[in-house]
Backbone:
């Protein structure tokens, strides 16, 4: 397999095959993680402890579960807690990635302070706006680059690599594949987060944006029937989106992510073998 053979259709086809092997385990793993995160998240004090000390290992367990599903390594729900067996590695990669992202945001922060200084001296004008835009673009490019280069580090950790080796492996797999990985990663992320879009719709868009808009535009005497129908249908809409996300899109997206990693590893291995063969032939 070459890198050109790694396409959206190939990774989602492989992801679907993984998902259909044991859909109940894939769905159950995500739901159990969501329930545990919710239970710990609503307890004052415990939510901070969970976010700092437990969440990295739990996410590591989720990746391990889906990796075992893809590899037919007798996966079970206990894999969801496998991250605690490599607790130090999951903490290390999580906070190292966080550090990289914080560093990537520094240009935007610095340029905002610079823009504030310029505004105090000359007032708000196009130069101040340009400084803010330039800083934001630099940080955005850095964030995307870091994400692409280190996107597979967590899977490498789940396979048993140390933190530094996992970073090197991810960078090797992504070398020269920036646009390729960006496009597929964007689609995987979009599909895997459909359920989160449902929660965002339910708790932000629906009450604070959509319902006020509908009330202001449809609640007059001539449109009151339509307003009542739409108003009653909105909960069904966001509940359906959350249901679709948790029970199908999220597990399929993670399966596709693991498939992308596996296929790029195969393509990278073949490329190394071909280079070695050419080198031997030229000796």
Residues:
């Amino acid at each position: 397999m070459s890198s050109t053979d790694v396409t959206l259709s190939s990774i989602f086809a492989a992801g679907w095959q993984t998902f259909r092997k044991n859909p109940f385990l894939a769905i159950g793993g995500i739901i159990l993680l969501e329930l545990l995160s919710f239970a710990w998240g609503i307890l004052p004090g415990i939510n901070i402890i969970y976010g700092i000390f437990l969440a990295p290992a739990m996410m590591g367990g989720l990746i391990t579960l889906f990796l075992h599903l893809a590899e037919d390594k007798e996966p079970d729900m206990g894999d969801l807690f496998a991250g605690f067996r490599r607790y130090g590695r999951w903490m290390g990669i999580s906070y190292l990635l966080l550090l990289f992202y914080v560093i990537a945001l520094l240009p935007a922060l610095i340029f905002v302070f610079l823009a504030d200084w310029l505004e105090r001296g000359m007032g708000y004008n196009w130069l101040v706006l340009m400084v803010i835009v330039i800083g934001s673009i630099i940080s955005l490019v850095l964030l995307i680059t870091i994400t692409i280069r280190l996107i597979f580090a967590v899977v490498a950790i789940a396979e048993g690599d140390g933190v530094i080796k996992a970073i090197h492996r991810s960078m090797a797999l992504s070398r020269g594949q920036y646009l390729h990985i960006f496009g597929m990663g964007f689609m995987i992320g979009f599909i895997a987060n459909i359920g989160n879009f449902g929660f965002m719709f339910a708790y932000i868009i629906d009450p604070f944006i959509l319902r006020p808009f509908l009330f202001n535009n449809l609640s007059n005497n001539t449109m009151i029937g339509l307003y009542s129908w739409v108003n009653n249908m909105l909960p069904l809409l966001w509940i359906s989106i959350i249901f679709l996300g948790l029970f199908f899109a999220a597990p399929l997206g993670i399966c596709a992510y693991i498939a992308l990693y596996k296929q790029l590893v195969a393509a990278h291995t073949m490329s190394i073998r071909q280079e070695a063969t050419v080198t031997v032939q030229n000796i």
Remarks:
- Residues 224-282 form the longest helix (59 residues).
- The mean pLDDT is 88.
- Residues 3-282 form one domain.
